[in-house]
Write a structure and sequence with these properties.
Helix content is 65%, strand content 0%. The chain has 11 helices and no strands. Helix 5 runs parallel beside helix 8 and helix 6 crosses helix 10.
């Protein structure tokens, strides 16, 4: 009886307690691990290549349809290298959103550095062209925000941050511009930026050969008329601020 009795610990039908413990301790994909920040130049270049490839694939196929294998292939790198820096697609998405935010901040910083020394027309062009200059990254961001309901709040976050940066640029150029006026202008300028993209890149808005030039002219005239009387004398003359240039 004892010899004929089924031994559940050895016949493979049920796991032993020790085996159960081993199974529970088996390593699982670490979905909580953040993106790996490279320390060397080669690593940073590789990450930039991977993120550029991810941006392209996601904007073309959407976040859900895009695969890590396809992203690695587009970057012409091994899948293991992609997983080394980004353990899963969600971590990669977070990195792309952070990258977009950093690109936009760098753009705004550059515009702010020139806001008081360029002409009104140049400032208007810098603003209206800014979103078009990062069009690929913006399309990838939109695809990401559309993919997950929990990311939808970031859309408003990005919009509000952009509006605040535009207000800051306007107040740099025209310090006496009323705050509420600057906020209203920021909304108009942001819509002009989006319209420029829609007319020239997305082709999602009605356009014509001369349409973008007319929008550019309209934006220049609008900015000039609204900032009139609120600029610093140095900015009005197109000269650097006091002390910014030698005699």
């Amino acid at each position: 009886m004892a010899e004929g009795r089924r031994n559940w610990q050895t016949d493979g039908m049920s796991p032993t307690p020790a085996k159960t413990k081993a199974l529970s301790a088996a390593p699982r994909p670490n979905r909580q691990r953040p993106a790996l920040a490279p320390r060397r130049g080669v690593g940073r270049e590789r990450v930039a290549t991977l993120m550029a490839a991810a941006s392209k694939v996601i904007q073309e196929r959407g976040f859900d349809a895009a695969t890590m294998a396809e992203i690695a292939a587009r970057a012409d790198t091994k899948i293991g290298s992609l997983y080394r820096f980004f353990p899963n697609k969600e971590v990669l998405a977070d990195a792309l959103m952070q990258r977009y935010s950093e690109l936009r901040d760098a753009q705004c910083d550059e515009i702010d550095a020139r806001a008081r020394v360029v002409s009104i027309d140049e400032l208007a062009d810098l603003l209206v062209d800014s979103i078009a200059e990062i069009h690929d990254e913006t399309k990838a961001l939109v695809a990401l925000l559309d993919a997950r309901s929990e990311w939808s709040g970031k859309r408003l976050e990005y919009r509000e941050k952009t509006l605040k940066r535009i207000v800051g640029t306007l107040r740099l150029r025209a310090p006496t511009l009323p705050g509420e006026t600057a906020k209203d202008m920021a909304v108009v300028l942001l819509n002009n930026m989006k319209t420029m993209v829609a007319m020239t890149l997305d082709k999602s808005a009605p356009t014509s050969p001369g349409g973008p030039a007319e929008l550019r002219l309209m934006n220049r005239l609008y900015l000039a008329s609204k900032l009139a009387g609120h600029e610093l004398p140095a900015a009005q003359a197109g000269a650097p601020p006091s002390g910014g240039a030698s005699e």
